[in-house]
Design goal:
Distance between the termini: 26 Å
Bound molecules: magnesium ion
CATH topology of the largest domain: Phosphoribosyl-aminoimidazole Synthetase, Chain A, domain 2
Number of domains: 2
Order of helices and strands: HHEEEHEHEEEHHEHEHEHEEE
Largest sheet: 7 strands, mixed
CATH superfamily of the largest domain: PurM-like C-terminal domain
Number of helices: 9
Strand content: 15-25%
């Protein structure tokens, strides 16, 4: 069945659509009450985030817009030290979207939410004229345990900078599909719950964490430098990039430092915890290529890259346009 303007009327067609796809796939008792807002248990410090997903194509190697929207929101909560709990989702559907596709997307959201330990408890659906596009906004709520204080301003001299795995996979996978380039690169789209929990449980002192999404590692680490007043020094040789993505970047003149990922994080941790943190991430799902890639030095608020032949260059944040609609 195709989405028609009637599915956005707020009437019977809308409730049928919600009931047969979203309510059925998400299966949450709070959501099923279909009240004006979800009333949720929880206390303490609340973390709240929202993000919109407009990726095209909606199904790409290694994932789809459903998995992406859950991972993106869960990961943003995790990076602030919160335990992710609840998500909302707003669907903007263009007339002509296939309900079979919508069901696949909802199923993917549900499976990813289960994997990440979050519940989808509220939602909205609108239909607009168009040619079958699907866009999703997700908001997420998490609770920050006492004693947790994670933020870019907390980077301090001597901290180790860690990355949880290879750079650029999501960006290269979506770009390959959009450009019709045949390869076996798949998106890294994943919830990072397990690796963050492992680090917290082993008592690693995490000073700052970010997921490495649009803008890439270069942009994130410039934010670390700018917020903390420190300089971040990276070793180019230690940056993990797969052979395939390195080749892809070489051919197209792209820099993995500015490629978007959807299942990678960078963290600044106390130097004495660096090895333990990398071991925790490597033992976790999606973290097998984790590495220490640099350290925090005294302050000039810049990001420096040390090359294998002994040179050093300043790396700025991403300027201008990145590839549109990778997330
Ligand atoms: Mg983020």
């Amino acid at each position: 069945m195709k989405i028609t303007m009637a599915h956005g009327s707020g009437g019977k067609s809308t409730s049928d659509l919600i009931g047969t796809i979203f309510e059925k796939e998400f299966g949450d008792p709070v959501l099923s009450k279909m009240e004006d807002s979800a009333v949720l248990p929880g206390a303490g410090r609340i973390a709240l985030t929202t993000d919109s997903f407009v990726v095209t194509p909606v199904f790409f190697p290694g994932g789809d817009i459903g998995r992406l929207c859950v991972c993106g929101t869960v990961n943003d909560l995790l990076m602030s030290g919160a335990v992710p709990k609840y998500l909302t989702c707003g669907f903007i559907l263009e007339e002509g979207a296939e309900t079979d596709d919508l069901r696949k997307i909802a199923r993917s959201m549900s499976e990813t939410a289960k994997e990440a330990g979050v519940r989808i408890v509220a939602g909205d659906t609108k239909v607009v004229e168009g040619s079958g596009g699907v866009y999703i906004n997700t908001a997420g709520v998490g609770f920050v345990p006492d004693g947790i204080d994670i933020g870019a301003e907390n980077c301090r001299e001597g901290d180790a900078i860690l990355i949880s795995g290879n750079l650029g996979d999501h960006h290269a996978a979506v770009m390959s599909r959009r450009m019709g380039i045949e390869n076996t690169i798949v998106s890294d789209c994943a919830p990072l719950v397990e690796m963050v929990n492992a680090m917290k449980q082993s008592g690693v002192h995490i000073h700052a964490m970010r997921d490495v999404t649009r803008g890439g590692l270069g942009t994130v680490l410039n934010e670390f430098a700018s917020s903390s007043g420190c300089t971040i020094e990276l070793e180019e040789e230690s940056l993990p990039v797969s052979e395939q993505v390195r080749g892809f970047c070489g051919v197209l003149g792209l820099d993995p430092l500015y490629m978007g990922n959807e299942g990678k994080m960078v963290a600044a941790v106390a130097a004495e915890d660096a090895e333990r943190a990398v071991a925790c991430i490597r033992a976790s799902r999606y973290g097998e290529n984790a590495a220490v890639i640099g350290h925090v030095a005294t302050g000039e608020r810049i990001l420096l890259l040390k090359t294998p032949i002994g040179g050093t260059r300043v790396v700025g944040p991403l300027y201008g346009e990145g590839l549109p609609r990778i997330c």
